Queue: 2 jobs
Job 1
Amino acid sequence: MKAANGVLLCTGLVMLSTMSFSACTSVTPVSAGSGNVSASARPAGTSEKSAQSEGGETDSAWMDLAGSTYEARGKILTWGEGKQSACSITFDDGTLDQFVHAAPVLEDAGVGGSFFIITGARADGQWRDGDDTRELFTWEQAAVLLTNGHEIGSHSVEHLDMRQLELDGNNEKVQQELQESAIEIRRNLPADYLPPGGGLTFCWPFWRTTPGLESEAASFYLAARGGKGLPSGPVIRDPYSIPSVMVLSHDSLPAWARRIELNAQRRGWIVFAFHGFDTNGEKTGSNGWEPIRIGKLEALVDLLQERSCWVAPFGDVYRYAVERHAAELKIGAITEKDMVLTLDDELDDSLYNQPLTLDVLPPSGFEVKSIQDEAGTQLEYELLENGWVRFDTLPDGRPVTLSFL
Ligand SMILES: [Zn+2]
């Protein structure tokens, strides 16, 4: 039987009594240093192992080995890098201005974005959007985006109103729009940089979707971005209609800042949906829809980083949230030399391969000198205040060893 998500269980060498649980929870809560993560705030004596906050944070474990007691604690952090909230910067339609102007802004800041492309129009280099003809980036340029750390997702084959197709009973066309665009992405882009089958993400044309369309999309995609709505909290409720903030030309930075603040309070995931960009304030037909000044994107990225927000591609953040919700962290053997832990989400490791961020507090008086996975690979870690260490690891159930000085 699986324990509640993210809870540390004391297993391995030692039998654990109810008494020792009380002892554990009476330990003074220790801050992880960043201020973003609350350590266990349960009152002493409330020893329910499942009494953890949403997001897999907090709990504790300890061992009694050969007469010595070693106590360790750990928690799965709500978002990557230990940040309080998450954000994905996404781009619809795959217009050339995104490649030329927007991608370099993200790359300079060291963050990845998500580009949802209309695969049917790509070979022509142009997309007829009502009265406008928009220039698109090429497959070669899409490959450059991928190799630079961005995500390429699907925005369907022809950018049709799929809700209307469904109303018309044209389910065959719905399926084609979903399936063929995924096939085209795989045909034209380097497999090494794409997630395995079923791992691509989707974005609904015109933000229009229905429960029927969403269940259809589940056959082909990992998750899909929808339209307006409050940002998702730490737990994703509608994986095929994840809400987004529609960016319009006249949007102001203070308005975005308020949304980012609200998202931080909710410890949520905010998704921005951009279209066009310009550098001189002039709108031309070849820009994407509702072009905004590129300086606004630069300011947004600065703001997110100031606000301790984890900025990562849509698919990565989605994976993180799902894995964290499913994952269980176990502390195994603790000796004077090292401690072993495992993190397992019991999901398909090829598809759910986003590392999760952990904070671990080694036994009192012990200092970590290295962390390595089962294959012997050294994991990077950060020493926090109060003796905690922070590092990323895959939730694949394989042992990770923290060696002590
Ligand atoms: Zn679109």
Job 2
Amino acid sequence: MQRMTLRAAINRSLSRVTGFEIRRVRQVTTGLITSHPISAKPSNTQRSFAMKPAAVSVAKKHAAQVRTDPGDKHIRSTFFDRYPAFYQTSETAPYQSRLNLRHDAIFEQNREVFDGARVLDIASHDGRWSFAALQTGAAHVVGVEPRTELVEAARSTLGQYVDDPTRYQFIQGDIFDVLQKERLDIDVVLCLGFLYHTLRYGELLSGLRALNPKHLIIDTTIFHESSGRVIKLDLDYADMQRDAVRDGYSHGDFILVGSPSLPGLELMLNAYDFKIDRLSDWEGIIRDNPDASGVKGDYGIGRRITVLASSSQIPRAKLPLRGYIPTDDAASAPR
Ligand SMILES: C[S@@+](CC[C@H](N)C(=O)[O-])C[C@H]1O[C@@H](n2cnc3c(N)ncnc32)[C@H](O)[C@@H]1O
């Protein structure tokens, strides 16, 4: 086995834990540990590490990752070309190529779960995915979206494209309030482009658990540079259409949000008895559609994924319980 350099060994651990790696070290004459007080202005020694995010995903491939043979994922579907109103009603990445490829990953690759389903679309935006759910076979969809202009756009566009208005409903509100107040009968939850606009994961997942859906589809940015069970913190700006809205926990214009790593997301899902069944084949989509644009910088490097999860009791042995479960043997019981 090839011997690793000291820097490679440090980088491996550093990037696993922090998502950063050392790219360049300048020669310094003083040691890194100093008894001098730390000054506000960084010294040469403090500036000597150039930290850059690790370029590629360090997360292990997941067993549920779908893989196809070259050529299998050539996308001919141009779903939104048939419904072009959706190219006009959003300021959040309404690009033709990105929307159509996301349609493949979210709906075509999970087609069977929509048949006759009652769907909840969290952060329904301008209604594009609520509409796609109906067109994929869902019986009914409830969209939840706090921003007035987006709810109005959703109602107007679906009014134009769906003959039967009893098949959809858009609730203007915050998903956390709606999960508390409404009694919804739901088979499939769509959580698309929302998980990284909150930190209230426990509340979200306990609310979804109470609905007892069969399936949950999550399309989200993840902290792909880490293979730990961690969440990377960020701030959303409430005045951006694509960002979180202010809530009872936010302060001023900014909202604390986070992106979990894939192992972090899986642990949270498992803790609420959801099991990951499938990760859509984004690698295949990008491989077979070389002119695909607008997806390579996130889905293309594993920074964004599409996950199908189902309700399923997770065996205790699968949870990282660190030996806390009491056994029959009193002597080995944790104290
Ligand atoms: C990045 S966009 C995603 C839109 C769409 N679901 C998609 O995947 O293309 C995030 C959406 O979340 C909505 N949103 C923000 N905070 C929300 C909340 N507390 N409850 C429901 N939706 C929220 C925003 O208004 C915005 O429409």
